[in-house]
């Protein structure tokens, strides 16, 4: 192994040679104060489970390393802003290391669009800094509030997966604090196996400290949106399939209430970045405006869910008729297109104390219509009406060993938790796994260990890397323990 004193990436290893290039081996002074651990409760964004553990909020690399090196409790996991829907960033009885104070941009080159930032920097903060300089996120999920490190750990996807892949496809390198406290740089060319295990690895290979991300060049911050409503699931799937070749961003909203021939009706929302010449006069005055981030607060969690079959039926009926019957093209700010739910803060509180699941799966294209139709029909039959459904298409599978996307139809379904829902979703798990599909780990809170192994065939490759860099399983979460990942393939 090469010398691990302060150095950047070393020359490529010889064939068969194992190497781990350490960017920095922090020297912790004996007189340095101990990391402050505070008792805390943790929830995922779905608010359906609670963990009790300790929390730490380091503000520097040295403090981050000290947080990794504490002896008790022995289990720890990184936690960004708590936007994982399930239990991926929960650590019952262990330590959650928060990144709210490690949220700074290290550098940004406005000529090349290369951003280097600490893992706690939010996607919203990145947009505020980069959009006015003519650069946009290469991939973004449906909210701007996650941290950069959390987005990489989950290998998030967006409306452009069919042509841009996941966010991991645009990461140039990661500085990772591993279990022994070393800071290791990994990239698609250096420490590649560790890179592939960390992208989509749910924070279990170490703590992502810094990320180098290649941003996407834009001429304006506006989106040309083509919107129209469609009357059935086959019509929607046909429209999305054709649009893959013509639009960089494609997505649809699905009415989960309408039955029979109109099952799966909804809106198709296609988008692309607007050129300067396409802007209206007022928009041209500020073509790279970062757009308003104003949001309506949801101040408290009601004892009962405000999202129920009655309100869902009302919302879906109104929502369906909002979009025009024929294609309407207009130019809008980017936030309403990419982040419609960010119009409200803490909107997850609307589901009451029981919370909700976001059930998201991908199935091969050839099975898509049958599986999606069966999913929607069964939820209607059981009176478990979804509050929100989004459907789109995935492109090629990425390099991350535990990354979610693969070619096929992907659907995300928000469902208020009620009695009997878990057993229905277990049946859906089996149906999805039978087709070779999978459920998204960052949204999951209930999958079985056996189902996980069926859905993620590269788990063995991931596990080999995990056991090399963290043989004692210092990094562990409620998710990893629920799926019994330490027990092996």
- The portion of residues forming beta strands comes to 15-25%
Cα-atom radius of gyration: 22 Å
**Largest sheet descriptor:** 8 strands, antiparallel
Strand order in the largest sheet: 17-13-15-14-20-21-19-22
Number of helices: 14
N-to-C terminal Cα separation, in Å? 28 Å
The CATH class name of the domain at 222-445 reads Alpha Beta
Structural class, from helix and strand content?
alpha+beta
Overall average residue pLDDT: 93
What's the CATH topology label of the domain at 222-445? Answer: Vanillyl-alcohol Oxidase, Chain A, domain 3
Helix content: 10-25%
Low-confidence stretches: 1-19
Question: Which architecture of the domain at 222-445 per CATH?
Answer: 3-Layer(aba) Sandwich
User: What is the β-strand count?
Assistant: 22
Question: Shape, please?
Answer: globular
